[in-house]
Amino acid sequence: MPLTDSLRDEILGSVPSLRAFAISLSGNSDRADDLVQETLLRALANIDSFQPGSNLPAWLFTILRNLFRSDYRKRRREVEDAEGNYAKTLKTHPSQGAHLEFEEFRVALEKLPQDQREALILVGASGFSYEDAAAICGCAVGTIKSRVNRARSKLAALLYVEGAEDFGPDETVRAVIGGSGG
Amino acid sequence: MKLQGLNSRGNVEKIMKDLKSQASKNAAPRKPGGLNSEIQSRIGHQLRAMYDDVVRQGVPDRFADLIRKLDVPGGEPQVDGSGGSNDQTNGRD
């Protein structure tokens, strides 16, 4: 369909969640914004292929996800610099107290296999249905479900091995080694 | 406390792991075959907190400008590719 005003507004309205998705995938906000920009350019250049009435966010997320995939393959051999960049480059920070936990979560998320990470983010954070997430990732609904489950189990194992409330052994060790842990 | 033996990454990780496994002995045992629902909800909460932190930043100017520029007739960029909208080739498992 042609690029109408309302469609343009809708695309613009999807930008915040596209950025959040891109940052969650790449762990790096500069790279994420490049991905979003590329996604918008592709979407606008191919707007004729968008079916009116279909799910615009899902269409945009599909483009971004595919760009990330091809980009990722290209960059695979480059030095991994994502660690620590994400929290630093955020404009708004969570409160200092929450920061450690936040950072720990992000690091754990990056340890997940890419398939599982994207499935978990699409369903657990972006709010897509399993069906939409399956369409975005080009796989079966059952595959998405099992990826999400595996992602949750793995995160639980990485973050809360024992299921205890803030037990704090990590903080103890960090203090001992001068705060360089994590 | 001495730093001896703690200065390599591997050692630190081993110690953290040991501490965690010790902790697990003191805490309620994990239900076999399923995630404890409290942990699940914490994971969900943290995931959304991280995500929404970015969403709340809104639309950066560079993207608003980009879309506005494309408003101008003939201002569309020259971009190759299909946009990936129908790319179903990445499904794996």
Q: How would you describe this protein?
A:
The complex is a heterodimer of chains A (182) and B (93). With 182 residues, chain A is mostly helical. Chain A starts with a helix and ends in a 6-residue tail after the last helix. In chain A, helix 1 runs antiparallel to helix 2, helix 6 packs antiparallel against helix 7 (130-137) and helix 6 (114-124) crosses helix 8 (141-159). Helix content of chain A is 69%, strand content 0%. Chain A is built from nine helices and no strands. Chain A is globular, with a radius of gyration of 18 Å. Chain A has helices spanning 5-26, 29-45, 56-75, 85-89, 96-111, 114-124, 130-137, 141-159, 169-176. The model of chain A is unreliable at 163-169 (pLDDT under 50). Chain B has a domain at 34-72. Chain B is built from three helices and no strands. Residues 1-6, 25-33 and 75-93 of chain B have low confidence and may be disordered. Chains A and B meet through helix 1, helix 2, helix 3, helix 5 and helix 6 of A and helix 1, helix 2 and helix 3 of B.
- Cα end-to-end separation of chain A: 48 Å
Radius of gyration of chain B: 25 Å
Strand count, sense and barrel status of the largest sheet of chain A are:
none
Enumerate how many helices of chain B there are, as a single number: 3
Average pLDDT reading of chain A: 81
Largest interface: A-B, 71 and 65 residues
Radius of gyration of chain A: 18 Å
Looking at CATH, the homologous superfamily of the largest domain in chain A is: RNA polymerase sigma factor, region 2, helix turn helix motif
